Each structure stands twice: as structure tokens, then as C-alpha cells.
């Protein structure tokens, strides 16, 4: 299998152009900064629930390997490292990887960043794999999920987030979000969004079991929050099926 089977070159090039502003909370990646607290809350809820972590523990991922697929410049990789994980960040854009390495070094964080696709991991296994707002940008979602499943260690946990393919997501993310300049124009292709059932089917076909779904809602007064409404954007959590020995 070619190491770039799931990488869409145009998408990688597009996000590479945003690398320099990735860590600017008021720059082109401002929306990601607003999403990050909700991502981290969901992540913490799931690891505490699935692995019996103490909710008060500051480093609940100590001793675990984590993979951040489509890591960008490290907005999620760095918190994972601070939670105690040995983190590998993987991104299709070399520009993002360069910025991520420089920023982590400036923070004194030992994170391994790599440029490439999920297929290039060569049999490595991770206890936790996260991929937030990425699958809607890949060339082959089924191959992407298959690569994630192969990289997941027995007993491991996968957390994904992505926009739902609904009229609301088209209005909020493209008509308003891109139209009003809240996110860079061209960020989204609504036709590539996956519904929760479609993504769940890909995960199940790859030998994983979906164990949780949660929505991400937006309130102009309070910003983003976890929700039971999956209409706009959603999270899926999955683990290996009990019969999966891979």
C-alpha cells in the first residue's frame, strides 16, 4: 500500500498554507482554538470512563502511547503530552510539522512529529488514537479508518470528530463560517462530510466497536459545548472488538 493513499494533496497543500498562523488564537485557525476545550473535555471523559482514570489526576495518560492523526501544528498533541502521554503527531502537510516541532520545543515538550499518512506507520501500535476534524479531508475515508484500526493497540481507544452532513452544517460551516471569514474559504467540502451512521459503519468494518457518540453544539453567547445533538458536528469513540486479535 502506498504511504500516501489517504492523503489528498490539494487538502495538504491548503492546510500547509495556514501553518504559520496555527498557534495564533485570532488568526486563520481561531476556530480550532475555540474547539479545543470541547475536544479535551470529551477526551478526558472518555479516558476516565474507559480506563478507570481518576478524574482528579493531572497525568492520566502516563505510560500510554498516543497518536494524533492530522495533528496540524499540535493544538491537541501538546495537551496530550501534558496529560502524560508519549505522543506522536502525524500530518500530511510538511509545513504544519515544522511549526509543530518548533512550538513543542519552545514549550519543552518531547513530542515526535512526522510528515506522512496513516499508512506509513509500519506496524506501530498506540493506546490512544485521536483524529479531530480530519476524516472529511482525506482521499479515502475507509482506508483512513482501516489504517487507524491497524495502529490501535489491544484495549486501545479511538476518538474521532467530524462535521455531520446536514443542512445545518452546510449553513454554519460553509455559508456562514467561510462566507463571513470565520474560517478560511475552501476549508470544507460539504459533500465529503460523513453522517454518524456512515462513520460508524466504517469503524465497524475495520474491526472496531463504537462505544459512544456525542454532539458538538454552538451557542453565539457561550461558544462550543458538548451536546446530545449530533446535527452540526459530532464525536465517536471506538475500541477493538473483543474478538479482534489484530
Protein traits:
7 helices, 246 residues, disordered C terminus, alpha/beta
Per DSSP E runs of 2 or more residues, the count of β-strands stands at 8
Which percent band covers the strand fraction? 15-25%
CATH topology: Rossmann fold
Write out the CATH superfamily name.
Answer: Vaccinia Virus protein VP39
Give the % helix.
25-40%
Mean pLDDT: 90
Structural class: alpha/beta
| Estimated radius of gyration | 17 Å
Summarize the main sheet: 8 strands, mixed
Q: Specify the CATH architecture.
A: 3-Layer(aba) Sandwich
Shape, principal axes of CA atoms: globular
Number of discrete domains: 1
Account of the protein in words:
The protein has one domain: Rossmann fold (3-Layer(aba) Sandwich), CATH 3.40.50. It contains 7 helices and 8 strands, in the order H-H-E-H-E-H-E-E-H-E-H-H-E-E-E. It has helices at 9-16, 30-51, 77-82, 94-107, 141-151, 167-178, 196-205, and strands at 65-69, 86-91, 112-115, 126-132, 152-163, 208-219, 223-227, 233-240. The longest helix has 22 residues, at 30-51.
